[in-house]
Design goal:
The complex is a heterodimer of chains A (190) and B (75).
Chain A (H helix, E strand, L loop, with lengths): L6 H16 L7 H7 L7 H8 L4 H15 L4 H7 L4 H12 L3 H4 L1 H7 L11 H16 L7 H8 L6 H8 L4 H12 L6
Helix pairs in contact in A: 1-2, 2-11, 3-10, 9-10
Chain B lengths: L1 H15 L3 H28 L4 H8 L3 H8 L5
The chains are: A mainly alpha (190), B mainly alpha (75).
Chain lengths: 190, 75
């Protein structure tokens, strides 16, 4: 699938994997692909996004915001919602079974220590976005896939969080397609 | 003090439980806590010489269920 990718596009995909890893995510999601586009700052996608005021910092803040909404907090905070004081439960368990008894249970260790394998697979939506980047390249009659085509792939509605972030900042499929077409009349792709 | 805390918790519960994402995540945490507590109690019972049958009876589950779940733990 990556044969036609430019060096910068490949770099973006590698950076997406690193971004997923650094956020301790178990999959490469569309938002990681979006972050990856900024890893080649001189590449077309980052330049195009800059025109919309979307840079690495903006996307990073959006991802962090989404995460906080997804994960409302620690176990202690979530249990408090149910009226359970985890600190008190922990204190009682310590008293009966020794310090750290609750956290030393196999059940607790299996929950906390998600194994961090080397391989992080692409999320379904990310695969779709990369497939669509090929389709976008063909549509532009380009025989390579650059970061701008990945960006177009991410802009399709079915590709998830990245599309959501981009739309919120006024980046549209038609807008970027037009910009790419304009650039295509002169500049080299990247 | 205790009453005030309980009230605050109730308010938090009432305010938050309508959001499924919050409520479901809380239940998932509770399930995790339940697993840890059950494991502590089963381990303790075994170390005091309780049979799987006795443990199962008090836990109100089948002997097979509790044995199957904890056998691998080596209690």
């Amino acid at each position: 699938m990556f044969e036609r990718f430019t060096d910068k596009a490949r770099r973006a995909v590698v950076a997406a994997r690193e971004d997923a890893r650094s956020r301790r995510d178990d999959m490469i999601r569309t938002e990681h692909l979006l972050m990856g586009l900024f890893d080649a700052p001189e590449a077309l996608a980052a330049t195009l996004l800059g025109g919309y005021g979307v840079d690495r910092t903006v996307v990073d803040a959006e991802i962090e915001r989404m995460r906080r909404a997804d994960r409302p907090g620690t176990d202690a905070e979530k249990l408090a919602i149910l009226g359970i004081d985890l600190d008190e439960v922990r204190r009682q368990a310590d008293e009966a079974f020794g310090p750290g008894a609750l956290d030393r249970t196999r059940a607790a260790r299996e929950r906390g220590g998600r194994p961090r394998g080397r391989h992080i697979p692409f999320h379904r939506a990310s695969k779709k976005a990369l497939e669509l980047s090929l389709r976008e390249a063909l549509r532009c009659k380009h025989n390579h896939i650059g970061t701008e085509h990945i960006l177009l792939g991410l802009l399709h509605t079915e590709t998830g969080a990245a599309q959501h972030i981009l739309t919120a900042h006024g980046v549209t499929l038609d807008g970027v397609r037009a910009a790419v077409a304009d650039l295509g009349r002169g500049a080299a792709s990247g | 003090m205790v009453d005030a805390m309980t009230d605050a918790t109730k308010v938090a519960a009432a305010a938050s439980s309508r959001d499924p994402a919050v409520g479901l995540a809380a239940v998932a945490s509770l399930r995790g806590l339940l697993e840890s507590l059950e494991e502590l109690q089963v381990a303790n019972a075994r170390s005091q010489g309780w049979s799987w049958q006795q443990i199962a009876q008090v836990l109100q589950v089948s002997r097979q269920a509790v044995h199957k779940k904890y056998r691998r733990f080596g209690f």
